[in-house]
Amino acid sequence: MRCSRPTIDSAAFTALLALPPHQAARLLEVQAAGTTNRDLQQATADALGEVYFRQGRSRAHGLDVELTDTEQFAFELY
């Protein structure tokens, strides 16, 4: 399923989310592998989709998340 319009219409979007360990590990693996920015964007989109939009598996089943026109991502480990 694809939306023709972005859900979040903002110049800057800040989300403070706790990623599940498997998503955090995937982001670190993709980054360490030296892959393309597109691969890192897709891993980030998958993590956001699971945690923010689908809230695990409790809503928005089947929703695909795609990041476009992104300028910056920042991740912090706690």
UniProtKB/TrEMBL annotation:
Domain of life: Bacteria
Protein name stated in the entry: Uncharacterized protein
Source organism per UniProt: Streptomyces hydrogenans
